[in-house]
Design the sequence.
């Protein structure tokens, strides 16, 4: 797995892959920039300080507005940290098939041409992935909150939950280009531990500043190398 990750980082020297990284990063940042404008614009328009001052004499407008701004900043930071994986994955869905194809051209030039995926398949896969990611994280939310009482527990839960889904999603991006759905299921079952660990590592990387902008493309390259190192291993 370390070798596959090392090869993935080495592939980032390719200009086409760097262009995909830049495009995904800019679109993802654009989404959060718009979200930030909406959030803080809404707080400013709401003018909570004026409303609270009319109800509680001891709460000056500027104190309430400052507190609301600080809470909003914390909320935006938390939202950015926890949801970047989802946003980046949705943006990356339109690039990953080409990314995997390019990695195979660089490192596995003797392979027959893959069928690839259509835009419709990418959109359906992304919607399904996003829905499952939101559902599982919603179910895990009470554990995240409880985990805050014990250092790093909530982070561990987050990476375990998202590692499963992220590993599966990136594996499908790679293997469904070259396998039938039934063969893909057998391959995933035979490699479930590797995929979970790889997914947790990808999810972890996407929560590190700067590295998270590289995340989707490196993840696709990483999973491509894992697949080709284990492509003959299927479920018994």
Sequence:
């Amino acid at each position: 797995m370390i070798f596959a990750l090392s090869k993935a980082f080495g592939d980032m020297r390719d200009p086409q892959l760097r262009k995909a990284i830049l495009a995904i990063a800019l679109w993802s940042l654009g989404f959060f920039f718009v979200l930030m404008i909406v959030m803080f614009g809404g707080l400013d328009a709401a003018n909570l300080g004026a409303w609270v001052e009319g109800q509680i004499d001891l709460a000056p407008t500027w104190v309430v507005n400052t507190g609301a701004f600080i809470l909003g900043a914390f909320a935006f930071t938390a939202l950015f940290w926890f949801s970047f994986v989802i946003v980046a994955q949705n943006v990356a869905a339109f690039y990953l098939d080409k990314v995997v194809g390019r990695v195979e051209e660089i490192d596995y030039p003797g392979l027959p041409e893959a069928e690839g995926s259509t835009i419709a398949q990418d959109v359906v896969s992304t919607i399904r992935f996003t829905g499952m990611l939101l559902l599982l994280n919603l179910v895990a939310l009470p554990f995240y909150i409880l985990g805050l009482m014990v250092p790093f527990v909530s982070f561990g839960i987050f990476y375990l939950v998202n590692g499963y889904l992220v590993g599966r999603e990136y594996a499908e991006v790679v293997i469904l280009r070259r396998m039938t759905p039934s063969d893909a299921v057998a391959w995933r079952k035979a490699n479930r531990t590797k995929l979970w660990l790889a997914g947790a590592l990808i999810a972890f990387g996407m929560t590190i500043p700067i590295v998270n902008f590289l995340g989707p493309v490196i993840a696709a390259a990483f999973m491509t190398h894992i697949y080709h190192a284990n492509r003959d291993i299927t479920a018994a």
